[in-house]
């Protein structure tokens, strides 16, 4: 019997979406307010969804304390109150869109969680705009 466990965490971070190969005009057209050269912040919500069998000894798929600690140490401590473009190495050459942030978080956490468990990251950039990685199907 497979079941999913969710842990939601929150971080604030600043970013700028920009493609240096493009003109300033095209950057403004494509990225709008997110191209602001002075950066701007978002209140991100990140949900880690871990799916697997219930361990008969503990009754857990994963201990939510362990999952929370992993998210705090390897995601929040790295992303919270940071300028993603300037301070997080993964975004030195990668646009910090919600899509790319979700993939980066998945890659960070995937290494830390038992390979027999599946991991899905859902990242909310706003209440209404959110992404999921890996995609459904
Ligand atoms: Ni933005």
Question: Keywords for this structure?
Answer:
single chain; 137 residues; alpha+beta; Tetrahydropterin Synthase, Chain A; 5-stranded mixed sheet; binds nickel (II) ion
- The largest sheet has its strands arranged as 3-1-2-4-5
User: What are the bound molecules?
Assistant: nickel (II) ion
Largest sheet: 5 strands, mixed
What structural category characterises the helix and strand content?
alpha+beta
Q: Which fold name is given in CATH as the topology?
A: Tetrahydropterin Synthase, Chain A
Strand content: 25-35%
**Mean pLDDT, all residues:** 97
The coarse silhouette is elongated
Uncertain runs are none
Count of the separate structural domains: 1
Percent of residues in helical segments? Answer: 25-40%
Q: Quickly give the CATH architecture.
A: 2-Layer Sandwich
What is the CATH class designation?
Answer: Alpha Beta
Number of strands: 5
Our measurement of the CA-to-CA distance between the termini, rounded to an integer number of angstroms, reads: 20 Å
């Amino acid at each position: 019997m497979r079941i999913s466990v969710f842990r939601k965490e929150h971080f604030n971070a600043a970013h700028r979406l920009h493609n240096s190969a493009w003109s300033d005009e095209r950057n403004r057209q494509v990225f709008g307010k997110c191209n602001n050269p002075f950066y701007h912040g978002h209140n991100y919500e990140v949900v880690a969804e871990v799916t697997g069998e219930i361990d008969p000894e503990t009754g857990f798929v994963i201990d939510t304390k362990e999952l929370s600690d992993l998210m705090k140490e390897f995601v929040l401590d790295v992303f919270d109150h940071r300028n993603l473009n300037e301070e997080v190495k993964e975004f030195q050459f990668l646009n910090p869109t919600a899509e790319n942030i979700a993939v980066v978080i998945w890659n960070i956490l995937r290494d830390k969680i038992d390979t027999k468990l599946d991991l899905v990251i859902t990242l909310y950039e706003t209440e209404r705009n959110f992404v999921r990685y890996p995609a459904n199907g």
